[in-house]
Amino acid sequence: MKKIRPTEASRGGVQHWLRQVLAPHKPLLNAALMLGYISALLLVWQSWLLALLFSDWLVAWQQLGAAALNVSLLRDLLPWLLLCLLLRPLLQYGRERLCQQVSLRARSGLREQLLAQLAALGPGRQALGADAVLGSRLLEQVDALDGYISRYHVQRYLVVLVPLTLLLCIFYYSPLAGILMLVTAPLVPLFMVLLGKAAAAASQKQFVALARMSGRFMDLLRGLKTLQHLQAVPQAEAEVTQAAEHYRAGTMGVLRMAFLSGAVLEFFSALAIALVALYLGLGLLGILPWAKGSIPVPYQGALFILLLAPEFYNPLRQLGSDYHAKAEAEAALTELMPLLELQVWQHPGQQPLQLSTAPSLAFHQLDIAQRLAPFNLQLAAGERVVLQGASGSGKSSLLQAVLGFLPYGGEIRINQQSLLTLRRADWHQQLGFLSQQPQLLHGNLADNLRLAAPEASDAQLVAVLDQVALWPLIRQLPLQLQTPLGERGLGLSGGQLSRLALAQLLLRDTPVWLLDEPTAHLDPQTAAHINALLERLSQGRTVLLVSHELGGLEWVDRVVSLDAPSVTQVTA
Amino acid sequence: MNRKLNSIRLRGLLRSRMGEWNLALFLGGCTLFAAISLLAISGWFISAAALAGLTTTAAYGFDYFRPAALIRLCAIVRTGGRYAERLASHHAALGLLKDLRISLFARVAGRGHSAVTRSSSAMHRLVADIDLLDFFPLRVVAPWFWASLLTAVLLGGFYLLAPLLALAALPGVLLAWLLLPLLAGRHAARLARADVGLAEQRRILLLDNLQMLTPLLLWQRWSARQAVFAGEDQRFSAQRLRQQQWVSLIAAGQQLGLSLSLLGMLWQGGLLVQAGELSLPLLLAAVLGLLGLTEVLLPLAQSFIALGLSQAARDRLNQLTSEPAKQTEQGAAALTELYSLSLSGLSARHEGALSGPQQVDLQLKAGDVLLLSGPSGCGKSTLLEVLAGEPLDYSGERLLNGKAYEHWQWRSVIGYLPQQLDIFDMTLAENLRLGQPAATEQQLWAVLEDVALADWARARPAQLNTTLGEYGAQVSGGQARRIALARLLLAQRPLLLLDEPFAGLDAATREQVLAALLRRQASGMLVIVSHQPLELEKAQRLQLTMN
């Protein structure tokens, strides 16, 4: 899993998508912000109550002696204190629940959106990367937004609102203390920006280093079998040790930098408390150089300010510790953007299609931008044609167009009806498609076959397996149709996989077959077997077979070449 | 006993770098103590100052230097301590990860390849699991240590001020420090352990759907399968959400507990001050200290999730390395010269495979060449794996020099080129030297010449130091195959087992490589599986059929 550092140009796009993802959940997020803010206000009130209580006690204690201490004031203030103390954790809890809920919904919404994009792309998705990579993007990268949504987003607003509110309160009691805070306050965002950038760059570097180190580790682990055969394990161990040490040394350097941003915040927070405490304390003693003999801030105000001072920087410290959540989310969205921003084409047709026999299939001036030059071909009903061409000649684009996943110029006609006017699902019902690399699901043989035809009986399954010459082999296995297939069809040879895919095709018994190099990855002997099967089983269907080799395909009615600049027809 | 030595234990994670962890814990303790003291002393200071200020005569006798110095000291310790603690703990954590990677690699390598024959996604998990293990010291041990230390110090301080004050604070603090995190946290840890299985299930479903996207769309099964995935995704997310909610709940409970303590202290403190047993500034210092404790105790809510994750990671890693090693054992007898290889009545089949070689008989002596052929799926590669000593279940006899493999140190005589070969993300020379660490540059060029890669390598700017990329991505499949072959030739093994060594080569290159192979292996044995027809008069041929 590689993370891309967002460039300045893409950062705007990332922000746009972050907003987009959160837009439907604005009300909930605003509610969470509200709760957070109310909680801050309650804190102010709580501090004020405490200051009031202590100041009352102090005056009583000093002037009238300890016995005059008015404990009943505590009783009077108790309901309000209790309210603040009980409500704040509940508000905090409510805020977290709301944000978590939003995060969950936003992420599953995004995931659905991405999957819909992939489904619309159909076979064209392969241009975006291997399925395993796409899969890990859909899972991990989408989940990587969690920290941003559930923690960072609301905090980002609180970090402005709360200190401003506290500042107003502090100003009311002591302009000078307020100014003290105000002077350090703008420094904090400034340092945050500077160090945040450095920290982001540093964490990026650290990530790259980690990826490289993990890569080396994985690389050697994956090849352990080979290393054992070569008896080169000690060399590999030395290699791992070296890479691990290198990573450790490098990362420590980076972290020294990254932790500075935390230290700066800590510094301001501690400094503010210390300065405010000294100023207030010396003021109360009446020995401030510029205010000798007078008390600038009375005790109640002083205590109130002291209680608020740590809270002034707390939202920022929180934001700082969640900063990596933001970086993580940005990196994740940068990876997802190519897929999100892809303009996918939707097949427009809505007319129903019913076929009882093999149809004719015609291409008139078929033209796919930059992939296929204008191309004409007519397949009569039940005709079997091989389309030949080197890689890059536009064969797979043509197949994608016929499958209804790619826009095109010119026309594709099925029994004189234009494909663009037909409902795609209806056309798919009539279509059998065999890809270069047939795939299987986790599950047993029967599960995989029934994917193509959910209603098929066991007898039907056995019949099609018999037709593709797999049944004699499967009959001997203890579990027969229930035989579990290894991961990704592991344990099946290429030929066996092709036969299984053919069996799926037979179960659907469609009048049109599109075959995409069905034997390209097989050895000649096996390819010959599969081609013989294809000859026998494709009779009576309209067949378009794409291949760059002709061996074993002598049975087709016609061979058409795509290679030449203008398409020529060759008759078999 | 042996099993224990070999498995990872969370407690053991701290032991290897005890000094570094102790330093980090000490620094963190100082930082948190300074943070709480800063507040408490400040509160005491302004209260005492206010008291002194009210009676003007006392104001001039008030010693404000010492508290002022203490306040500054606390501010400095808090700032510097935090930075130093972060550095120290990460130094230790990175060291721990380094140790773990090295020892785990050695262990997996030593145990044979039961762990290694897994899919690459399992490998990714292994790497990720190691990274999860530092959660234990960083997010479990350290927060608990600091929380316990500071709670004890604070309660001790309260006790010294007035025993009743400590008693008033005790119930709420106990709730926030021990009871809630322990009771509720255990449940959260269970949830965290369980989510790995759900995550795996979700990944499998998604990958299945993606790989079969086109057929599923054509068969109108996409939305149905998608719904199955969405359901699994929901289950996983709901599980995660429950974890987060537990953490939030514990945190809310902790804050309520501390609120309870605060009220108790105010009440009791008021009475104590009234009775003249406690000074008011000290009561305020105690209250501020309690407020400061919140920050120290809250991380405990998270700690059990971290514990659950690192426990799960530990269990998976231990399971991986404690599975009975499935490999052909090496015997004690050195095999200096190999003169015969024989199979009789040998049958084998991969788990999950539909077919495999059946009843194979075979006799080879030094200098022999054997060509294996047959249709795809008849078990040629499986037979080669059995010959290479791969851990496969087989029946029949498999002998070297008339004795079973397990009698000999057989690895040193066998060179095996599998269909799935491994090129490492290192330079060409390093890849080749895996076969023969002491090989000179001259030898490397000679063997490259033999596999018809010397011209290609000479044309690279970095020549022998050309990097080959992850999975050998910088070279074509045919080149990778020949590099692996060259590596084997350097290792000079008496028995060479080659699965499709000529795939992707044109006829002329094939002839050249084959000639070199025959020359280099003239006195050894050579077994080749190939689809291409090879011009080899003196070779034995074995045709396998479908069973």
Describe the structure.
The complex is a heterodimer of chains A (about 575) and B (about 550). Helices cover about 65% and strands about 10% of the residues of chain A. Chain A has helices at about 10-20, 25-65, 70-120, 130-145, 145-175, 175-220, 225-230, 235-285, 300-320, 325-340, 395-405, 425-430, 445-450, 460-465, 470-475, 495-510, 525-535, and strands spanning about 285-290, 290, 360-370, 370-380, 385-390, 410-415, 415-420, 430-435, 445, 485, 510-515, 540-545, 560, 570. In chain A, α3 runs antiparallel to α5 (about 145-175). The longest helix of chain A is centred in the middle third of the chain and has 53 residues, at about 235-285. Mean pLDDT of chain A is about 80; it is low at about 1-10 and about 565-570. Chain B has about 550 residues and is α/β, with parallel strands linked by helices. Chain B is built from 18 helices and 9 strands. A 5-stranded parallel sheet of chain B has the order 6-7-8-3-9, sandwiched between helices. Mean pLDDT of chain B is about 80; it is low at about 1-5 and about 115-120. The chains are: A alpha/beta (about 575), B alpha/beta (about 550).
